[in-house]
C-alpha cells in the first residue's frame, strides 16, 4: 500500500515557506505522495498553488488533491491549470475531486451550491476531453498535448459510484476511520466498476488526520480541526475524536486499511510543524 502525507496547506495561518520544505523532506524520507486539501473561505493556502510549489521542490513524489472542490472553479480554466501542473511536474498528479458542503465557498465564488453535483459532472466531462487535447471551446485545444491525470472521486453516494465506474480511476474515502462502512462502500465501488465493464480494478484511497507530540501539540491540533470543520460542529468533534495521536495509532491504521484492500493511505497533519513529518516517517516507512 502506498503511504502519502498531506501538505499543511489547510492549517490556518500556515506559512507559505513551509510547503516546499515539507514536500522536499517528504520525498527524501520516502513517502509516495504529498496531498493538498481544498477550501476557499478560510485562512489557508490554495490547494493547486501549494501542489505547484511542492512539484517545484521535488522530482518524483506523487502529487494528490484530496480533494479538490471542482464545482467552485470555471471548468475550462481548471482543466488548463491542472493539465499545466501535470505536464510541468512530469505527470505525477492524481486528482481527487469532490463537491464539499460549505455554502460560504460557493457564495464567495458565485458557484451553484444546490446543483454542485451536476456542475461536477459537466466539469469532469470537459476536463477529460481537454486532457485528450480535444477542442472543448472555441476552435483550438486548451492543452498543447494530451496529458493523463488519474481521477478519484470522494463521497459516499450513488452518484459517487456512478462517477467512479464511468469517468474515474477510483475512490477517495473520507478522513475519518469508519472501517465497516468504508469497507462496505469499497465493495460497492468494485461492484459498480465490474458492472460497467471496466478492466482492472478501481484505486481505493483512504485518509486520516494526525498529530504526534505532547499535550500542547495535540490540543493545538484539536483546535485546528474544530476550526476547520466548525461549520458542522458534530463533524468537527468526530474528526477530533478520530485524530491519530501516537505512532502506534498510525501503524495500526496502515495495517487496517491494508487488510481492507485499500491501495493508498494519506496522513493529513493537523499542525504545520515539520517534526510531524519526521515522526510519521519514523513510524510507518
TrEMBL record:
This is Oxidoreductase. It comes from Mycobacterium kyorinense. The keyword Ribosomal protein does not apply. It comes from the Bacteria. Keywords: Flavoprotein, FMN, Monooxygenase, Oxidoreductase. Residues 15-240 form the Luciferase-like domain. GO terms for biological process: alkanesulfonate catabolic process. Pfam families: Bac_luciferase. Coiled coil: none annotated. One of its GO terms (molecular function) is alkanesulfonate monooxygenase activity.
Amino acid at each position: 500500500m502506498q503511504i502519502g502525507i498531506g501538505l499543511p496547506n489547510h492549517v490556518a495561518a500556515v506559512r507559505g515557506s513551509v510547503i516546499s520544505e515539507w514536500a522536499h523532506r517528504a520525498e527524501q524520507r520516502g513517502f509516495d505522495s504529498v496531498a493538498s486539501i481544498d477550501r476557499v473561505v478560510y485562512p489557508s493556502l490554495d490547494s493547486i498553488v501549494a501542489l505547484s510549489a511542492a512539484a517545484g521542490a521535488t522530482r518524483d513524489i506523487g502529487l494528490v488533491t484530496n480533494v479538490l472542490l471542482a464545482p467552485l472553479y470555471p471548468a475550462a480554466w481548471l482543466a488548463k491549470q491542472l493539465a499545466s501542473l501535470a505536464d510541468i511536474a512530469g505527470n505525477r498528479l492524481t486528482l481527487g475531486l469532490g463537491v464539499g458542503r460549505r455554502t460560504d465557498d460557493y457564495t464567495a465564488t458565485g458557484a451553484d451550491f444546490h446543483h454542485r453535483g451536476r456542475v461536477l459532472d459537466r466539469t469532469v466531462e470537459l476536463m477529460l476531453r481537454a486532457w485528450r487535447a480535444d477542442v472543448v471551446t472555441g476552435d483550438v485545444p486548451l492543452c498543447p498535448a494530451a496529458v493523463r491525470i488519474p481521477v478519484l472521486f470522494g463521497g459516499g453516494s450513488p452518484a459517487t459510484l456512478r462517477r467512479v465506474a464511468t469517468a474515474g480511476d477510483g475512490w477517495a474515502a473520507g478522513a475519518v476511520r469508519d472501517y465497516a462502512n468504508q469497507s462496505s462502500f469499497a465493495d460497492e465501488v468494485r461492484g459498480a466498476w465490474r458492472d460497467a465493464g471496466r478492466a482492472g480494478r478501481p484505486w481505493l484511497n483512504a485518509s486520516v488526520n494526525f498529530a504526534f507530540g505532547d499535550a500542547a501539540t495535540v490540543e493545538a491540533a484539536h483546535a485546528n480541526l474544530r476550526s476547520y470543520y466548525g461549520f458542522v460542529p458534530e463533524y468537527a468533534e468526530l474528526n477530533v475524536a478520530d485524530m491519530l495521536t501516537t505512532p502506534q495509532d498510525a501503524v495500526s491504521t496502515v495495517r487496517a486499511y491494508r487488510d481492507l484492500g485499500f491501495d493508498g493511505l494519506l496522513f493529513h497533519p493537523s499542525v504545520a510543524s515539520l517534526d510531524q513529518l519526521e515522526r510519521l516517517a519514523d513510524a510507518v516507512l
